[in-house]
């Protein structure tokens, strides 16, 4: 079983953390499945991943045997983990995690909930699965989508109430086991943040992973052709295509190719500005939760409130 979990938040930098942490020689993270979502299964049998077009299983891994098999490749690594950012959002997940791995280290990275919500909208727009053409309309439609069982990826506003979500973990796990970071820290000093995580996980904190590239960046594609090519490669992540590639290409070369693809994607994306009126409405809606959250985690979040 894993010794640590990255539980979220979605669009908070978890993909970047996954790619940075797994570079450490004493850290093992599954290569084939980045987000197993094992502890989500049971909250919903299915979730709507791609809007109204179709349904798919709510978790990539649905049995304990399959989940444990993800870590069979670990040999001498002291730390074993996975990154499923949905774990922060679903209410029953903390209890399941405690039942299976009560001593687990919990890592969470939080992003300004307004920026996170808009980034999630741009993510879905980027992938061509957001029916609304503007963010305000998607927010108006959110309650209906939640009632109809759409994926949490579409819960733009609802996923931003971090105090409520994180409190569930503090009720079940010792505070020393919960390691809270901010997306602002990741942007400002990614190496320092990741090395701090290494120390929390009990591995050499002086190791220097490559942290130059951001992963899973949101935005609107300038070239749909280039983006479709990227999405094809991304879609092969859990398919026989990747398995075939693993047999033919050494891990270092695969990592280099993946980094090059990420950089090309970033060059192909533009980020439209968020409407100031929409920003203020969201910010006021999150204000009470943010004020309680900063007390819970002992961090100044006045910037999220537009006060700094």
Automatic annotation (TrEMBL):
Keyword Transferase attributed: yes
Record's protein name: Sulfotransferase
PANTHER family attached to this UniProt entry: BIFUNCTIONAL HEPARAN SULFATE N-DEACETYLASE_N-SULFOTRANSFERASE, HEPARAN SULFATE SULFOTRANSFERASE
InterPro entries according to UniProt: NST/OST, P-loop_NTPase
Keywords linked to the UniProt accession: Transferase
Keyword Hydrolase (UniProt): no
Signal sequence extent: none
GO molecular function: sulfotransferase activity
């Amino acid at each position: 079983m894993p010794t640590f979990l990255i539980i979220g938040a979605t669009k908070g930098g978890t993909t970047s953390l996954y790619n940075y942490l797994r570079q450490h020689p004493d850290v093992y993270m599954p290569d084939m499945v980045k987000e197993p979502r094992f502890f989500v299964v049971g909250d919903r049998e299915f979730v709507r991943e791609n809007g109204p077009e179709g349904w798919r299983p709510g978790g990539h891994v649905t049995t304990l045997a399959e989940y444990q098999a993800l870590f069979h490749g670990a040999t001498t690594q002291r730390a074993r983990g996975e990154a499923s950012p949905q774990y922060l959002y679903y209410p029953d997940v903390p209890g399941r995690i405690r039942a299976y791995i009560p001593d687990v280290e919990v890592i969470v990275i939080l992003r300004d909930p307004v920026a996170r919500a808009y980034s999630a909208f741009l993510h879905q727009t980027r992938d061509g699965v957001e029916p609304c053409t503007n963010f305000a309309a998607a927010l108006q439609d959110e309650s209906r989508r939640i009632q109809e069982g759409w994926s949490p990826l579409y819960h733009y506003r609802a996923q931003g109430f971090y105090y409520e979500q994180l409190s569930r973990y503090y009720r079940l796990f010792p505070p020393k086991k919960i390691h809270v970071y901010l997306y602002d820290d990741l942007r400002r000093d990614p190496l320092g943040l990741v090395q701090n995580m290494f120390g929390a996980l009990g591995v050499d904190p002086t190791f220097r992973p490559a942290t130059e590239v951001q992963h899973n960046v949101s935005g609107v594609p300038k070239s749909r052709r280039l983006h479709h090519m990227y999405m094809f490669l991304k879609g092969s992540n859990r398919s026989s295509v990747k398995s075939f590639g693993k047999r033919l290409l050494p891990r270092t070369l695969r990592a280099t190719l993946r980094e090059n693809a990420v950089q090309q994607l970033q060059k192909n994306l533009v980020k439209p500005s968020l409407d100031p009126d929409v920003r203020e409405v969201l910010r006021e809606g999150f204000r009470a939760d943010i004020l309680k959250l900063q007390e819970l985690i002992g961090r100044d979040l006045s910037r999220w409130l537009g006060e700094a």
